[in-house]
């Protein structure tokens, strides 16, 4: 009650400022912070809780990687009629959804996030996307993602088989994304590639259950375009269809490649788009930001949500601004797939071939 009354008074004190010529409304919160919308005020304390207690003071590590994966697995749980989406169902109905094959391992971050939702006044759907956007901001080179607030709690679990698997065909992956985004005009193959920029800060714990934290690129702690180069190196499909189904062996020791990433980099519908991300930091940032903005509100009308994007910290830039081939590899190792544009010529790291270290804490 007292809280509500305070907001009412503050609403009278709304100030106007001009940024880049556009007039933007600013609201002052009870704690002195200024925001775009009064509904965003309680998020400052939640952000502090997340950074301190979920991300070890602001790291780009295992929990950030898992939290980003969770934004996707919650959102893509949507039917063609628009039911479900980014609604927190993966946490609210976790006993059902974490049992789905494609959600293998998701239970770990679900268990870690649950107490944060319990002790803060925020829905599971909002929390998942908020934590994901904050987590990404801890990774040097990342864009500042958007965050919109206002996802009601899920009332039903997502059906099984909405989350793509690495051994799915490109036809079925592109169709699933098209279907998931059908109520908002669909999702192009280029947008699918843009979302996979996420795999620059990612590793696998479960494809090969004998090894943990196996990164998808040589730099899982930074948001760079190294993934797009390394997935284009010649590799071999893991033999057999057993435990390692969906894995392609990378020529880089210690690194794992998803069969789906490998195929997207080589399919005629997506290969040139994939290659266009190589050494193109502005593009990986802008394309990922735009695709995430769309994914994070799946199942909701963005116009009826509060834009709290100014709560997301500005990430640090990369210190290494041009990507390079890992030692021992060069342009000669590229499996060219884009028919119209040659692969960019890049330098190789000096010295003998090294292996990629696992992500700590996995
Ligand atoms: C074709 C679509 C996709 C497929 C088939 C796919 C598949 C996978 C698989 C199999 C893993 C490894 C899980 C494990 O073994 O522990 C993984 C990890 C991950 N995925 Fe995806 N993914 C896709 C799209 C996305 C999207 C759209 C996002 C986010 C926007 C995302 C974010 C991540 C992250 C951050 C990880 C690393 C998790 C960690 O390091 O703990 N993925 N993905
Ligand atoms: C919890 O959040 C909702 C929606 O953001 C708000 O209407 C409500 O007043 C909040 N409750 C408390 C106790 O702060």
UniProtKB/TrEMBL annotation:
<feature type="binding site">
    <location>
        <position position="224"/>
    </location>
    <ligand>
        <name>Ca(2+) 2</name>
    </ligand>
</feature>
<dbReference type="Pfam" id="PF11895">
    <property type="entry name" value="Peroxidase_ext"/>
</dbReference>
<protein>
    <recommendedName>
        <fullName>Peroxidase</fullName>
        <ecNumber>1.11.1.-</ecNumber>
    </recommendedName>
</protein>
<feature type="binding site">
    <location>
        <position position="74"/>
    </location>
    <ligand>
        <name>Ca(2+) 1</name>
    </ligand>
</feature>
<dbReference type="GO" id="GO:0034599">
    <property type="term" value="P:cellular response to oxidative stress"/>
</dbReference>
<dbReference type="GO" id="GO:0020037">
    <property type="term" value="F:heme binding"/>
</dbReference>
<keyword id="KW-0349">Heme</keyword>
<feature type="disulfide bond">
    <location>
        <begin position="29"/>
        <end position="41"/>
    </location>
</feature>
<dbReference type="GO" id="GO:0046872">
    <property type="term" value="F:metal ion binding"/>
</dbReference>
<feature type="signal peptide">
    <location>
        <begin position="1"/>
        <end position="21"/>
    </location>
</feature>
<dbReference type="InterPro" id="IPR001621">
    <property type="entry name" value="Ligninase"/>
</dbReference>
<dbReference type="GO" id="GO:0000302">
    <property type="term" value="P:response to reactive oxygen species"/>
</dbReference>
<keyword id="KW-0575">Peroxidase</keyword>
<dbReference type="GO" id="GO:0042744">
    <property type="term" value="P:hydrogen peroxide catabolic process"/>
</dbReference>
<feature type="binding site">
    <location>
        <position position="89"/>
    </location>
    <ligand>
        <name>Ca(2+) 1</name>
    </ligand>
</feature>
<comment type="similarity">
    <text>Belongs to the peroxidase family. Ligninase subfamily.</text>
</comment>
<feature type="binding site">
    <location>
        <position position="219"/>
    </location>
    <ligand>
        <name>Ca(2+) 2</name>
    </ligand>
</feature>
<keyword id="KW-0560">Oxidoreductase</keyword>
<dbReference type="GO" id="GO:0046274">
    <property type="term" value="P:lignin catabolic process"/>
</dbReference>
<feature type="disulfide bond">
    <location>
        <begin position="60"/>
        <end position="139"/>
    </location>
</feature>
<dbReference type="InterPro" id="IPR044831">
    <property type="entry name" value="Ccp1-like"/>
</dbReference>
<dbReference type="InterPro" id="IPR019794">
    <property type="entry name" value="Peroxidases_AS"/>
</dbReference>
<keyword id="KW-0732">Signal</keyword>
<dbReference type="GO" id="GO:0004601">
    <property type="term" value="F:peroxidase activity"/>
</dbReference>
<keyword id="KW-0439">Lignin degradation</keyword>
<feature type="binding site" description="axial binding residue">
    <location>
        <position position="199"/>
    </location>
    <ligand>
        <name>heme b</name>
    </ligand>
</feature>
<feature type="domain" description="Plant heme peroxidase family profile">
    <location>
        <begin position="68"/>
        <end position="342"/>
    </location>
</feature>
<keyword id="KW-0325">Glycoprotein</keyword>
<feature type="binding site">
    <location>
        <position position="87"/>
    </location>
    <ligand>
        <name>Ca(2+) 1</name>
    </ligand>
</feature>
<feature type="disulfide bond">
    <location>
        <begin position="272"/>
        <end position="338"/>
    </location>
</feature>
<dbReference type="Pfam" id="PF00141">
    <property type="entry name" value="peroxidase"/>
</dbReference>
<feature type="site" description="Transition state stabilizer">
    <location>
        <position position="69"/>
    </location>
</feature>
<keyword id="KW-0479">Metal-binding</keyword>
<feature type="binding site">
    <location>
        <position position="85"/>
    </location>
    <ligand>
        <name>Ca(2+) 1</name>
    </ligand>
</feature>
<feature type="active site" description="Proton acceptor">
    <location>
        <position position="73"/>
    </location>
</feature>
<feature type="disulfide bond">
    <location>
        <begin position="40"/>
        <end position="308"/>
    </location>
</feature>
<dbReference type="InterPro" id="IPR002016">
    <property type="entry name" value="Haem_peroxidase"/>
</dbReference>
<feature type="binding site">
    <location>
        <position position="217"/>
    </location>
    <ligand>
        <name>Ca(2+) 2</name>
    </ligand>
</feature>
<keyword id="KW-1015">Disulfide bond</keyword>
<keyword id="KW-0106">Calcium</keyword>
<dbReference type="InterPro" id="IPR024589">
    <property type="entry name" value="Ligninase_C"/>
</dbReference>
<dbReference type="InterPro" id="IPR010255">
    <property type="entry name" value="Haem_peroxidase_sf"/>
</dbReference>
